[in-house]
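Attaching the record inline, Q. Sequence:
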Amino acid sequence: MARAEARTGGQALATRASAIAAVWRMSRADCCDGADEPAGHCRNSCLDKGAAERQVVREGVERMRRSLDLKQQLVQQGVQRRQGWGARKGALVHELEAQQKEIVRLEGERGGKV
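Structure, as predicted:
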């Protein structure tokens, strides 16, 4: 039964891949310069189509730049916070050691008076 399901899944995947390939081929069949049409039926729209695609790419690049800038800011903030936490930890460790020494000193004083 598992083999039958695997074959069915594989067939479904192959069918989807075939459909995607067919759509891709159809989108490529329509030449923007009208070379695939009888003379005079279609104007050359390659420049318009190319300009629209370039605009989409420009917008994508700009989004990526903004995202990378934000990522860099967040990384820098993270580094600064980590350094701050490290400094705070050092101060707390130093304070803890001082308090532990004070406890030992006070216990020593108390031990001698008991």
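The mean pLDDT is 81. The helical segments are 2-29, 46-113.

More tomorrow.
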